[in-house]
Amino acid sequence: MGQDQTKQQIEKGLHLYQSNQTEKALRVWMRVLEKSADPAGRFRVLGCLITAHAEMGRYKDMLKFAVVQIDTARELEDPDYLTESYLNLARSNEKLCEFQKTISYCKTCLNMQGTTVSLQRNGQVSLSMGNAFLGLSIFQKALECFEKALRYAHNNDDKMLECRVCCSLGNFYAQIKDYEKALFFPCKAAELVNDYGKGWSLKYRAMSQYHMAVAYRKLGRLADAMDCCEESMKIALQHGDRPLQALCLLCFADIHRSRKDVQTAIPRYDSSMSIMTEIGNRLGLIQVLLGVTKCWMIQKELDKALESIEKAQELAEGLGNKLGLLKLHCLCERIYRTKGQQRELRDHVVKFHECVEEMELYCGMCGESIGEKNNQLQALPCSHFFHLK
């Protein structure tokens, strides 16, 4: 297959993909990969396969194609191609919750500066790195990366990148419990979609609606949360976006739990858990297990709650997700207080405070811990944050 034919087949695949005929598109692209003798064409088709598998939640396949793409980039001996392939490798590892590897590949990208094309990719590299630091609960570094990504987005007038960074910032502030900002950033992302997103993939709209739903739920605005989550789920189902479906099911379950409707929440958690397991989103699984634990606690089934905690703790330790561990110690503390088991209670109080110290979640002004309850926060230029009050 020559250069022109390769180009035509790639375009044919893109057309099929955009009209939701994903499996047909994949078959076209795989044929190009087998038959094309044009390295640049092969590189591009690998990029298409990586994106498609990412959106379907087939992260292991995504990683496999990213590795092949690096070999193709080396064959082409072009620093821009190499940077792009390392970014895809970083992203694949981010999706598989291999956060240390993500950070390492992102650093490789930043050290391999080719031309202006590579420089424009720095924003995406910073975003991926920020998401990885957030997965490890290293909040100050995560915020530094997100702000850097936002600067790149503004400098290059890249509205899509800005939209993605705003969603990540929404997630960031939801985790450290500044719910005003957790809502502000996804609302900003939704505005960008409305103003500039006519030709964009619908996933940007779905993503911003999902993060708005999370913030609305945390603020106790459950009807608004339900509306946004339904909107997001509708798009996720249309597009066969399994990762987003899993997140929406988790959000639905959390909304029902907030309404104390455990009977409706549990099956939603189960559905979310089965997709999270299938795609390998271990960070998502920790969130699901936290929700399930709280349901058992509402029903006073404390032994079942401890079983869920044990599973979640194993995952959180494996990932190095310190915030997950902190929340689990906090739940254990409540359970053992209710059971009157003083020794276990003390053990978890100590571990809870160790987690707070490790994450440096203290306000530099008042010395109180950050992230215990909803509080407006202010970040300094050095990315340290403190209570606005």
Automatic annotation (TrEMBL):
SUPFAM superfamilies: TPR-like. TPR repeats lie at residues 123-156. GO terms for biological process: positive regulation of neuromuscular synaptic transmission; synaptic transmission, cholinergic. SMART domains: TPR. Its main location: cytoplasm. Residues 1-80 form the Rapsyn myristoylation/linker region N-terminal domain. This is 43 kDa receptor-associated protein of the synapse. One of its GO terms (molecular function) is protein-membrane adaptor activity. It is a peripheral membrane protein. Belongs to the RAPsyn family. It is found in: Cytoplasm, Cytoskeleton; Postsynaptic cell membrane. Pfam families: Rapsyn_N, TPR_12, TPR_8. It comes from Smutsornis africanus (Double-banded courser). One of its GO terms (cellular component) is cytoskeleton. Keywords: Cell membrane, Cytoplasm, Cytoskeleton, Lipoprotein, Membrane, Metal-binding, Myristate, Phosphoprotein, Postsynaptic cell membrane, Repeat, Synapse, TPR repeat, Zinc, Zinc-finger. Postsynaptic protein required for clustering of nicotinic acetylcholine receptors (nAChRs) at the neuromuscular junction. It may link the receptor to the underlying postsynaptic cytoskeleton, possibly by direct association with actin or spectrin.
